[in-house]
Design a protein that fits this description.
The protein has about 250 residues and is an alpha+beta fold. About 45% of the residues lie in helices and about 15% in strands. The protein has nine helices and eight strands. A hairpin with a 3-residue loop joins strand 7 and strand 8.
Length: about 250
């Protein structure tokens, strides 16, 4: 369905439809990267101009089945807006907790990858041992495992997200948030890479080389500046979308 047809049918704003298309594309990108856990993780995006509303996947769909129109629209109180659809209750807890606590968060991503889950077993598990880690290390926060779907967990996650946008959910997995969809994805990509390298290093027979503190500080300053720009991760996201498009992904409907 074209954007014009969709807008005519539902009075949906151009901004919401574009966000739906971008978020649906993100699900296909995550599927292509192999970061899925059947139907049990979730990505969301706040709707521009509607700060109390966000989009999330319809529970039960595989990531390569997600389309712009299948995404569920919710408010921060847990109500489904418009077309009704089943959503993951733990997903609502996670995403609403971040959006309530971080008005600057417009996208939240959550995964259960093997590398992310592996590092989540280690308190303060990431070390300054790779350039991948230096992309995120200054903005990493660790979050204690809580009771899924509870208001307590919703509130606690919001507190943790005040400390950083790259979150290791202990005993669980990874979460990132950003001002843009592409910015949140770039954070997740680098966090995932850092976790992969960390686990590789821990399997070796000798300790890894630690990057000098001076270099760490220079990297921190650079990444804080870079992550604050609207362009952060944009070209990478556009390239990944072109990749899934070439593979025949159908999500703009």
């Amino acid at each position: 369905m074209s954007s014009a047809m969709k807008l005519a049918a539902t009075d949906m704003s151009d901004a919401e439809w574009q966000t739906r298309c971008d978020l649906a594309a993100l699900y296909h990108v995550v599927h292509d990267l192999g970061w899925t856990d059947l139907i049990n993780t979730h990505m969301s995006a706040r709707i521009p101009g509607e700060p109390e509303h966000f989009l999330i996947n319809r529970y039960g769909e595989m990531f390569d089945e997600v389309t712009a129109s299948s995404l569920v629209k919710m408010d921060l109180a847990g109500n489904v807006i418009g077309d009704q659809g089943k959503f993951n209750a733990a997903g609502f807890t996670i995403h609403s907790g971040v959006y309530k606590a971080r008005p600057d968060a417009n996208c939240v991503l959550h995964t259960h990858t093997r590398a992310g889950a592996g590092v989540s077993l280690l308190r303060n598990g990431l070390r300054p041992i790779s350039q991948d880690a230096l992309h995120v290390l200054d903005d990493v926060a660790y979050h204690e495992y809580g009771v899924p779907t509870s208001q307590e967990e919703c509130d606690a996650l919001g507190v943790t997200c005040q400390k950083g946008s790259c979150v290791v959910l202990l005993n669980h997995g990874l979460l990132t948030w950003g001002e843009t969809i592409h910015g949140a994805l770039m954070r997740l990509y680098m966090l995932e890479r850092a976790c992969e390298v960390e686990l590789m290093a821990r399997s070796l027979d000798e300790p890894p080389v630690v990057i000098e503190p001076y270099v760490q500080e220079r990297a921190k300053a650079r990444m804080q500046k870079l992550r604050g720009t609207p362009e952060y991760g944009l070209m990478e996201f556009q390239g990944l979308v072109r990749t899934v498009d070439r593979k025949g992904a159908k999500y703009r409907c």
